[in-house]
Design a protein that fits this description.
The chain is α/β, with parallel strands linked by helices. The chain has 2 domains: 220 residues, Alanine racemase (TIM Barrel), CATH 3.20.20.10; 123 residues, Beta Barrel (Lyase, Ornithine Decarboxylase, Chain A, domain 1). The protein has 11 helices and 18 strands. Strands 8-7-6-5-4-3-2-9 form an 8-stranded parallel beta sheet. Strands 10-13-16-15-14-17 form a 6-stranded antiparallel beta barrel. Strands 11-12 form a two-stranded antiparallel sheet. Helix 5 crosses helix 6.
């Protein structure tokens, strides 16, 4: 007996991933730390890491030790970089495996120094230039550098900060770049091997730094631009798909889905086999969302349910059970879907659930 195909699946285009990585390199002119936290933004942590492991990158950006451990167990050679402060209980493992932490507090400096007494730990210093999520404020930088000079167990190999509004507030972001560059320029003993990084996807697309030699694209390498003007240069990596399971001919005045959205005309309604249980947002209900079926945009009808949605295919010349439906991808960007859902593309991508099969090509 052959195994039946999945109801919902995500096609992951490896060639698009490589294309977008080259866009980031060309546009920034700098080295790349590819951000693969959150299961590589829903694309599959291990498979994406294996692709990026071939690209001679200095780091892969992960959120925690669990993600770093997964890479190490899979034989990924590119060094994991822990994005954000670390818990005390995580640090021994970080030190043992040679992953790179970013130091966000004096307590972390002290603890990692103790852990590195026998084998020095390479670490970066996190600066808070406006995010408010961790790192040393400008007045604290001198003391932090002094502590690190005294810390024989730590080798400082880089410094970074993070942009909170690079895709929203250019005035603040330019000031933030100036502050960061000024702080970096006050750090003595830097050389070309010292990693300096600030820019996320929006930052590398639209801003310039005097000091950075490394950028940290996330959304961009998956083919979605946080700045719409740059979308034309990118290729979406994920296409989220399902299939029509049944087509119903419903009369005007009939209800559709939970809450009974009342049809305003006789309607040919296609049931598509996925829902919020697969990561398709329930908040799209009644928001004018569409699904691509047979190269046409077909409106969503009624509320999104856990396992199924209903789509108006009245205007299609032909639609049959088994036809593929594109929920987002090259023909309908996840960023456009996110606007209708009242959220951001990062959230939609990372909430595609494990029951959605990832197919790599």
């Amino acid at each position: 007996m052959t195994e039946s195909p999945p109801r919902a699946w995500a096609e992951i285009d490896r060639s698009a991933l490589h294309h977008n990585l080259q866009v980031a390199r060309r546009h920034s002119g700098k080295n790349i730390m590819a951000v693969i936290k959150g299961g590589a933004y829903g694309h599959g942590l291990v498979e994406i890491a294996k692709e990026l492991d071939k690209q001679n990158l200095p780091f892969l950006g992960v959120a925690n030790t669990g993600e770093a451990r997964c890479l190490s167990k899979e034989g990924i050679k590119t060094r994991p970089y822990i994005l954000g402060a670390t818990l005390q209980s995580e640090r021994e493992e970080i030190a043992a495996y040679g992953w790179t932490p970013c130091l966000c507090s004096f307590e972390e400096i002290e603890h990692f120094n103790q852990l590195g007494k026998n084998s020095q730990i390479e670490a970066h210093l996190a600066l808070d230039t406006g995010m408010g999520r961790g790192g040393f404020l400008p007045p604290q930088l001198g003391e932090a550098l002094k502590k690190l000079r005294e810390a024989s167990g730590i080798k400082l190999t880089g410094v970074g900060s993070h942009l909170p509004v690079a895709d929203e507030d250019s005035v603040f972001t330019r000031k933030q770049f100036e502050l960061f560059d000024s702080m970096v320029e006050s750090i003595p003993g830097r050389d070309e091997k010292f990693h300096v990084h600030l820019s996320n996807s929006a930052g590398l697309l639209d801003y310039h730094s005097r000091t950075t030699n490394l950028v940290r694209p996330g959304l961009l390498i998956y083919g979605i631009s946080p700045l719409p003007a740059n979308q034309e240069f990118l290729k979406p990596v994920m296409t989220f798909k399902s299939r029509v399971s049944v087509i119903n001919h419903l009369p005007k005045g009939h209800g559709v889905s939970y809450g009974r959205t009342i049809l305003q005309r006789d309607t040919k309604a296609a049931v598509v086999g996925l829902g919020y249980g697969d990561g398709y947002p329930r908040s799209l209900s009644g928001k004018g969302a569409s699904v691509v079926l047979n190269n046409s945009l077909c409106p969503l009808l009624g509320r999104v349910t856990m396992d199924q949605i209903i789509v108006d295919v009245t205007e299609l010349d032909a639609c049959h059970p088994g036809d593929e439906a594109e929920l987002f991808g090259p023909n309908f960007l996840v960023s456009d879907l996110a606007i209708k859902a009242g959220t951001i593309p990062w959230e939609i991508l990372t909430q595609i659930t494990p029951r959605v099969t990832r197919i790599y090509r």
